[in-house]
Amino acid sequence: MKKNNKIGVATATYHNFSTEETLDGVSRGGYKYIELLSVPGFGEHIVPAPEEMDITSARKLNDLCKKYGLELLCIGVYMRLMKEGSVETFKRVIDAAEMLGSKYINTDTGEVKSSDDEKRFYKDMGVLGEYAQSKDVTICFELHGDWCNTGKKAAEVIEKIKNAHVRINYDTGNAIFYGDVRPEEDIKYALPYMSFMHVKDNVGGYQVYDFPILGEGTVDFGKIFKIVDDYDGPISLELELDEKEHPLEEVNAGVKKCYEFLQTFGYGEQ
């Protein structure tokens, strides 16, 4: 059965390549949507960084996406929270999303290590959730790190925040890598609070950095897609392979192969 979810690529997949190389590769892979990355020191496909963006640069970036037949689905903006001045910094990220026409921001919770950190986090998210709501932008927390790293934990976090514009980005590979749980069993906890999904495979289990082409790892996507059958939100591929650097041609080939895999389950253009 044909699915209506918007299917894109999270550009962490191309973290060591330029924005244009990335857009070209994603387009050649058959995708129509893109999730642009901004992670200091890892990958920056939004230049200037979102907290420094103005309307002119936002228009140029959207025009660049259109040049390759892509629509901006989301911005993936990580490592901004739980730092000095993080609320004001992230407000500017939300402003950037509004200027870009992106309804979603994928991010992480930052380093939450103590009860005091938790108090600060929930206080900050009270402010940021209201600000995101005023801009009609949804903040989605990806499973990541040592705290918010399973669907069950993420659901608890979202329940405490109590704002419909703060939701979960469920990452099937990160559930294993960070949370040491099976996504086939864990995703049910997140599903009522999901507004975004990263499809990522895994080989090796907990703390093993090996995210191969979809269908070549241990994630049972057939089972997962049955569980999320009624989920109609956006989905991004995140193909990070292993810790070795891979040539652009190999990444492009993997991205295309993943699209073909998703098509067998009814996702994407048929």
In short:
By secondary structure, the chain is an alpha/beta fold. It has nine helices and eleven strands.
Can you tell me about this structure?
The protein is α/β, with parallel strands linked by helices. It has one domain (7-263): TIM Barrel. 39% of the residues lie in helices and 18% in strands. It has an eight-stranded parallel beta barrel with strand order 1-2-4-5-6-7-8-10, surrounded by seven helices. α1 (19-28) links the parallel β1 (7-10) and β2 (33-39). The longest helix has 20 residues, at 115-134. The termini are close together.
What's the layout of helices and strands?
Layout: E1 7-10, H1 19-28, E2 33-39, E3 43-44, H2 55-67, E4 71-77, H3 86-100, E5 104-107, H4 115-134, E6 138-142, H5 151-161, E7 166-171, H6 172-177, H7 183-190, E8 194-199, E9 210-211, H8 221-227, E10 235-237, E11 241-242, H9 248-263
Parallel strand pairs: 1-2, 1-10, 2-4, 4-5, 5-6, 6-7, 7-8, 8-10
Antiparallel strand pairs: 2-3, 9-11
Q: Class by helix and strand content?
A: alpha/beta
Low-confidence spans: none
Our measurement of the CA-to-CA distance between the termini, rounded to an integer number of angstroms, reads 10 Å
CATH class: Alpha Beta
Shape label:
globular
Return the CATH topology. TIM Barrel
Give the DSSP E fraction (strand runs of 2 or more residues).
15-25%
Q: How many discrete structural domains?
A: 1
Number of strands: 11
CATH superfamily: Divalent-metal-dependent TIM barrel enzymes
